[in-house]
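User: Could you check the structure of this?
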Amino acid sequence: MIFWRVKPLDQILATAEKKSLKRQLGPIQLTLLGIGAVIGTGIFVLTAEAAQKAGPGMMLSFVIAAIVCGLAALAYAELAAMVPVSGSAYTYSYGVMGELVAWIVGWALVLEYAIGATAVCVGWSGYVNGLLNSGVFGLVKPGALSLPHWLQVGPTLGGGFNLLAFLIGVAVTGLLVIGTSKSARVNAALVAIKIIALTAFVVIAVPAVRNANLHPFLPTGWGNPLGSNGIGVLGAAASIFFAYVGFDAVSTAAEETRNPNRNIPIGLIGALLICTIFYLLVGYGAAGSVGAQPLTNAAGAFLDPGTPSFAAACGNSQALVCSREPLAQVMSTLGHPWIAILIEAAAIVALPSVILVMMFGQTRIFFTMSRDGLLPNMFSRVHPKFFTPHVITYITGTVVSLCAALFPVGKLADTSNAGTLLAFAMVSVGVMILRRTQPGRKRPFRTPLVWIVCPLAVAGCLLLFVNLSGVAKGVFLAWAAIGLVFYRLYGYRRSQMSPEQITQALEDVA
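Assistant: Sure, the predicted structure tokens are below.
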């Protein structure tokens, strides 16, 4: 039976009270936390990858991904308001579907947060290397400050060790250890910078849209709804879904939020609405102003971005699909070099906020799993001065930094999406189960039209999952298998819900 060792919601709340984090975040900080996580590599970097997969049709990809995220956000808001503790989808699954499902979800969230943070580190590195290669705003000779190529990108793109991606991961780790409130203040400033840069892009690019640049609108077609090779509108939607990932990080901060029953839904839905509006305008402006047609090989087949063959086809091409800094390149093409510099600088300064929120979410998931006994107790140690889970923050930061140095952004983003889609689907299922099993439980926020919204959210997650690349699905299945082995060897017996631990707790009380 799958639904076993279900941890009652009241017990989850009681456990959190015994070993909790300090409540210090308000609704504005939460909304900015969500925007900080969402607006990042997805729009600043993955716009080029989406264009290679779908051409101008990537605008439809943004819409599809936004709809799926919006449906899931309504489900998240209900559970986050009911159970305002750290852990996000992992905690909700534990209280509704039991320990095994919770473990699978929590383990999958590593792909969302840790691998997501890794992808953003790589995206940030692309912008900084572009700035250095161009001569830092023309102050020095182009190339004078460039790092050797083998230190600019990972092995799959012809390099060796992405040094800047590694260093930004290390820096964000240090900031997270210092403290949540300090991190939130830094995040608010970085969000403002990103909003200003994207607004400038929209104001210039949208009026420059030409109808001819949008044809053919669907050069690669829709893709196969039952699973494709990642090409087409659905394949691009599965990738660009990463552009929306992060709004659920708001729910991981529930235990550090003042009045979470009210503020968590505000943060979740507010962040998603603001980001969706920006994404649609940016996607339209980019594709319509300079064109976004994908590259093909000699046989006329569309190339898969992030592969050696695609890198070779790009060469020194100035095509949007080839750029590692696409929004800045659009501004340069339109004759606005200083706006390009602004966007480049904004990405360099502000993308670390996405890394910060992703790593924040990952450490809080592990903190909660450790508190439940599924991971070693050392992971839930709280720093005596900074009141942060410092041990797991150091471990997460090390893994993120090393992976960022070695892997390409596109493949990392697809892999991250696999874990996110599972979490979103499980949250939606959890809402429906609780409506049946605990209809009288207080719900500060209720998902509207729940029997329409939640099934559609699950179906949307499944649609995007089957359209991920084969590599992403393979990594997801392998990661899940490793997680089940670890659970059987450690978490199964150490869990606070195991008979041994329950007996020990009773003896300690006696």
